[in-house]
Amino acid sequence: MPTIIRDRDAVRGASLEDLNHTYRELKGEPDFKGFTARAAAEVQVSMAIMAAQDAAGHAGVPKGTKPPVLTAQELAAKTNPYKEGTLSHALKEAIDKQQPITPRPKAAEKPPSDRVKRVVIKRVMATGMGDSKPQAGSIRNQILLHIQSLPDGVATVEALEAHFQHPVRGYLQKLIEKNHLVILEDDVK
């Protein structure tokens, strides 16, 4: 009867049948046909032993001790690795009893007609009042003063960009937010 090899040092002297059986048990693959080359079997079984030690190490083996080599079935059967009566044991039991987290269903998207359409700024008009005071040397203040100096205090974005040789929509948006300017619709003159 084949045996399970639990030490990497014993891999070199084991039979090919023991290596195949150990690999099947450690990996949890009973349908594995087996290795035909001994060198490949030794390497793969050594790696499977290390993976089993790593898996057992993550299952609650105290630090500083060498974790045992557990087969896939032994690891699955070991439900609570902590000592009974400890807080860790109680927490593990409480977590195991909880229902798995199910993702929240996605909210249905609104139809396109209900969405707020983005306002494109084309023309603005100075209000003569505002909720803030732009800094004296700032570009935003220069834009505001330029619009206020125009007849009727009305300016187009294209004219402002031509005058300042710089994109101005960001500055205009901030001035609109602070009630220094209002957006004029295309049909309003």
Give a structural overview.
The longest helix is centred in the first third of the chain and has 20 residues, at 38-57. The protein is mainly alpha-helical. The chain has two domains: 8-82, no CATH class; 123-184. It has a three-stranded antiparallel β-sheet. Helix 1 (16-27) packs parallel to helix 2 (38-57) and helix 5 crosses helix 7. The radius of gyration is 37 Å and the shape is elongated. The chain has helices at residues 16-27, 38-57, 72-77, 87-97, 139-149, 157-164, 169-177, and strands spanning 123-126, 154-156, 181-184. 16% of the residues are buried.
Q: Keywords, please?
A:
189 residues; 3 strands; elongated; 7 helices; mainly alpha
Quickly describe the structure:
The chain has 189 residues and is mostly helical.
Gyration radius (Cα, Å) is 37 Å
Strand order of the largest sheet: 2-1-3
Q: Assign the structural class, choosing from mainly alpha, mainly beta, alpha/beta, alpha+beta, or little secondary structure.
A: mainly alpha
Domain count, please report it.
Answer: 2
Measured between the Cα atoms of the first and last residue, the distance is 97 Å
Mean pLDDT: 82
Output the helix-strand order.
HHHHEHEHHE
DSSP summary: helix tally: 7
Query: Helical percent range?
Result: 40-55%
Ranges with pLDDT <50 over ≥5 residues? Answer: none
